[in-house]
Amino acid sequence: MLTLVIIVVLLALLFDFINGFHDTANAIATSISTRALSPRFAVFYAAVLNFIGAILSSEVAKTVGGSIANPADIDNGIQVVMVALIAAITWNLLTWYYAIPSSSSHTLIGSLAGAVLAGAGTKSLNWDGFLGIVKILILSPIIAFAFGFLVMGIIKYVILLSGNKSRSKLNRGFRSFQVLSAGLLSFSHGGNDAQKAMGIIVFALVAGGFQSTLDVPLWVKLAAATAMGLGTSIGGWKIIKTVSKKIMKIEPVNGFASDLTSSIVIQTSTAIGQPLSTTHVITSAIIGTGSVIRFKDVKWGTVGRMVITWVITIPISMALAFVLYKLIFAIF
Asked: Closest Cα partner for 252 from 332, 155, 184?
């Protein structure tokens, strides 16, 4: 049993590491695109703040660890978590390879649900908890788009009132603001995303009888935060290119507005203990702020392909985890 738990912990940390370089683009793509930060410094900056954000909260981890299924009630809970992580890692690597900014959150939640269905049956899946998380995952990018549109509209109105028509001065000013907003976004990203791996580890610990509550041990926090920080330090350059250049041309003003919008949405979700997709939130915020500046300049074809990926990630991850579970334990 201990060996299986160790394997799950290692897989969870690998997932967190991949999540770090897969989602690096979330926090720093806009600041790199506008040259507010150099690529090397931006990645280091994001890695440090991802780590700090990851160790300061645990409510999202409790939600992931206990809302989809009760780990104490599943006899083969460790095997379920193991397969869920294998499926999630597989999907993350595929989408990273093809430079698609998909959601690590979607694939982890979908994979865990699929593995529970395969290993413990429909009665073991907490449908209310699962659908509650899915609801937040769906609503959060819509909120980010609308809020980003509003924030950018206010900034644009204030700029017009000020009479400042110098584009170069505006760009210089907002590049400075972007240094702060990128840091806040990196901190927010760590506070929500790293906790998902923590929740998975806690699920395995409870299922294996190593603890009786969903509280996150300090060693789990430090291990997950370190894995995400190290992953972020590598940098997901393919996805950074997609987010920073293939959606629309990002200027310092809407880069700042996007980062600020995303941080507020992510921090709010973290405060109420709900996991969301930082990828979806940030991309939606970029589209929302960009629509205010030049609606026709948004590359809606790219956006459409990304949305399709978002829609299919949960069902594909569920199916992948379900099939993997049946195959692995049919063989062994």
From this structure: 155
Torsion sign over Cα 111, 116, 121, 122:
negative
**What is the tens place of the pLDDT at every residue in 43-74?**
888 889 989 998 988 889 999 999 999 999 98
Residue with tokens 């609801």: 135
pTM over 0.90? The answer is: no
Count of alpha carbons within 13 Å of 112, Cβ hemisphere only?
35
Of the candidates 281, 252, 284, 280, which has an alpha carbon nearest to the alpha carbon of residue 30? Answer: 252
Residues recorded for the chain: 332
Quick one: pLDDT band at residue 93, thresholds 50, 70, 90? confident
Cα–Cα–Cα angle for 286, 289, 295, nearest 5°? Answer: 100
- Angstrom distance (rounded) from CA 332 to CA 199: 27
Provide Rg for the chain, Cα atoms.
20
pLDDT value of position 46: 86
Contact 68, 276 (CB under 8 A): no
